[in-house]
Amino acid sequence: MKKSVRQPNIILIVMDDMGYGDTECYGHSAMRTPCMKQIADEGIRFTHMYTAPTCSPARAQILTGCYAQRVGIPRVLFPDDIIGLRPEFPTIATCLREAGYATFMAGKWHLGSQPEHFPTRHGFDHYYGLLYSNDMTPLHLYRDETVEEATVNQAALTRRYSEETIAFIEQHHDRPFFCYLAHTMPHVPLAVEDEFRGRSECGLYGDTIECMDHYIGQIMQTLEANGIADDTLICVTSDNGPWYEGRVSGIRGRKFDVYEGGIRVPFAARWPNGIPAGSNCTETAHLMDLLPTFMQLAGAQPPEKIDGLSIAELMQGQGNTPHDCLYLYRGNDLDAVIRGQWKLHLKCQRGEYMNSNEYPKLHDLRADPDESYCLASRYPEVVQELTECIKAFDQQMQPYYVHDPQS
């Protein structure tokens, strides 16, 4: 493995509601995603990367390295919300810009729609995209802080986000840069340009993913053409599990759930100067780990009070998970915890019809990855230990559970 001679460029690509099993590198035989597969084959694939079960909390965690509850975004935000990401919480972009990086975001923000919440107020030099989900109104396309289009052609968004990202790379290839490409698709309503419509064996949902994969390939070609592919860390993931469509590959649950299908997401990363090709990581990690990881790779200090931990060693195919426990929220409700092989659920999931006496539920994720069998009565000492972990963490977080006037 070669050693990078400079701070790596960093490109983070996040799909919206793409399932754990929706790509070739996670076993989908019908979804054609050769570019994402190339990233995994020439880099690393994580099998146990976790997130929050809904959009805004997931994005808050990615960008701040904190549990969403700590930064005051425990739920999905809407266009008329007055809350959003506050300036006292530095983002990946804020930290990397201070370390000398050029910063750019394209795509879905979803961390507040008031001017003080815009991406350009949180470390991004430039922004191009939608402030929230594509099923919300009014839906406008922004450039920096100005509405560029009041009527959005959603079918063209994947191409246009990618073209803007490519233009930024070409303009800044001679210095370290951070690009955050947060695709709108495959969030509903699904839309794709005619060139990709009907291509996939997986319907319109598959068309949108194969289209995004195509443009990931265009971005990778741009890196090669500018001679910076080896110096660039490119990561591809999803904000949370799939909604109506999408594959979870045998694990239980979907978006909104803290079952594995709602919170375990695909994650592949490629960096020829820093990641051994063909690596596979089965250790537990979380998307909030990206901020401290990127800071370590850039030779910069992360903020002091964050929950994420660097997974730089894991990306190099070394070491064990830095986490003792991962805590899983829905809103301000701390519903579950993962510790090693064990996962404890305290409450029913959305849409479940369960007797409350059946909780807490304990699962062995190694033997029972789809959380089908409760082992609480067999291992009461594990239930007690994990319950105490949840109580202690919940007590620590209580000061951050701010009153939400619109919840």
SSE layout and pairing:
Elements lengths: L8 E7 L18 H8 L2 E7 L4 H10 L27 H7 L3 E6 L18 E4 L11 E3 L2 E4 L7 H15 L5 E6 L20 H23 L6 E7 L21 H4 E7 L8 E3 L3 E2 L3 H9 L13 H4 L10 E5 L2 E7 L2 E4 L15 E4 L15 H18 L10
What does this entry look like structurally?
The protein is globular and about 60 Å long. It is 24% helix and 19% strand. It has 2 domains: 9-315, Alkaline Phosphatase, subunit A; 326-400, Arylsulfatase, C-terminal domain (2-Layer Sandwich). 53% of the residues are buried. The chain contains 9 helices and 15 strands. With 407 residues, it is an alpha/beta fold. The mean pLDDT is 95. The strands form 2 sheets. Strands 1, 2, 3, 4, 5, 6, 7, 8, 9, 10 and 11 form an 11-stranded mixed β-sheet that branches. A 4-stranded antiparallel β-sheet has the order 12-13-14-15, covered by helices on one side.
Task: List descriptors.
about 400 residues, alpha/beta, Alkaline Phosphatase, subunit A, Arylsulfatase, C-terminal domain, 2 domains, eleven-stranded mixed β-sheet, four-stranded antiparallel β-sheet, 15 strands, globular
Q: Specify the CATH architecture of the largest domain.
A: 3-Layer(aba) Sandwich
Strand content: 15-25%
Radius of gyration over all CA atoms, rounded: 20 Å
* Major sheet: 11 strands, mixed
Amount of helix: 10-25%
Question: Which blocks of ≥5 consecutive residues have pLDDT under 50?
Answer: none
- How far apart the termini lie comes to 50 Å
The structural class is alpha/beta
User: Would you state the CATH class of the largest domain?
Assistant: Alpha Beta
**What is the number of E strands?**
15
CATH superfamily of the largest domain: Alkaline Phosphatase, subunit A
Per DSSP, the total helix count is 9
